[in-house]
Hints:
- The chain is an alpha+beta fold.
- It has one domain (5-102): HIT-like (HIT family, subunit A, 2-Layer Sandwich), CATH 3.30.428.10.
- It is built from 2 helices and 5 strands, in the order αβββαββ.
- Strands 1-2-3-5-4 form a 5-stranded antiparallel sheet, with helices on one face.
- The radius of gyration is 13 Å and the shape is globular.
- The mean pLDDT is 95.
Amino acid sequence: MENCIFCKIARREIPANIVYESENVLAFDDVNPIAPVHVVAVPKIHVATLMDVSEDVMEDMMKAVQEVARIKGIDKTGFRTVINCNEDGGQVIFHLHVHILGGRKLSDDMG
């Protein structure tokens, strides 16, 4: 999508601190982190919501989550993943994305 911010980041039209990249997924530090580690992983192709994603893309996204956790050193201590879906689920940007949160013990009300 032409005006999608995550598509623009994936196309390198908007700068981001890239943490991980594969053929199909890009992961970068969130610009407004809510935890010491807060990375956002997105498919490089535009997928609007979790309800629209294919199994192949979802598999690549989960592999990216695992790699980001290793890269950021939270794979052993633990982390949280969050995927918001549609308006009632809190999705603000309609390009599928996974938040990877960690770096400290997370409270139950966080996320």
